[in-house]
Structure formats: structure tokens, C-alpha cells
Amino acid sequence: MFITKSNFILYVQDQTRSAEFYTRVLGIAPSLNVPGMTEFTLSENSVLGLMPETGIKRLLGERLPDPAQAAGVPRCEIYLTVVRPEEYHRRALEAGAVELSELQVRDWGDRAAYSLDLDGHVLAFAEKIA
User: Fold this and answer.
1) Is residue 72 part of a domain?
2) Is 105 exposed, middle or buried (0-12, 13-18, 19+ CB in 10 A)?
3) Least crowded by CB within 10 Å, which of 33, 47, 48, 129?
4) Is residue 124 part of a domain?
5) pLDDT for 61-97, tens place per residue?
6) What is the tally of structural domains in the chain?
7) Closest CA to 67 of 41, 98, 76
8) CATH value at residue 46
9) What are phi and psi of 109, to 5 degrees?
10) In terms of residue numbers, what domain contains 123?
11) Is the whole-model pTM more than 0.85?
């Protein structure tokens, strides 16, 4: 199988607020920003999407547990390898993220910093050191 593009979609409480957060943190404007979906192109084949919790509930129906019931409970981790992770981490904290762990060397050979975004998703910025 060959995957031509990866879209990672976070379910968020407030699409506008989360779009503003990720615009500040990533330092890029959304590549798509319409009611029901905001997207940030992270690389040629990778996109981070933000969808309101109510939108996914409406789209997938009653078989899906209500994402709003897990507000603030970490449901995923976005791990981004970047140049100067300390700058991304600082911007995240300035934009309202909660620090989980400062930038430090990890066992797997990265320097990484961790925080929680506005909806409780784990957000990590890292760089390879090995």
C-alpha cells in the first residue's frame, strides 16, 4: 500500500479558538478555513485538521461516543520534528498551552518538549540529536 497523503484531524471544542492557537504556534496560516474544518499543511503530504466536536458527531452519528464528554482528556499526541523546537514550545505556552515537560533529551535520541493544547491534546516539538 502506498499512502499519498496523511491527514490528522483533532476534534476541538471551538474551531476558531483552536485555529488561532495553531496559527500562532505553527507560525503559518491555515491552508483551509471553512465552517466545520480548518487545515494546516505541515508538509507536502501531511495535513493537521481541526474539526468541531459537534461536526464529527453529526457526521458519524450515534455510534461514536460524544467527543465533548472527554473534554480535557488527552486523546492523541501530535509529535512534530522541527528546527528550533524551543521556539515552537514557547509559542504554544504563550498561546495558552499547559506545559507538561520542558525541552530535554529523551531516551530515543530526540530533544523534545511537551504541552497540552487548548483541548487537552498532547503536543510535542522535537529535534533529532543522535
Assistant:
1) yes
2) exposed
3) 129
4) yes
5) 677 666 666 666 667 899 999 999 999 999 999 999 9
6) 1
7) 76
8) 3.10.180.10
9) 95, 15
10) 6-128
11) yes
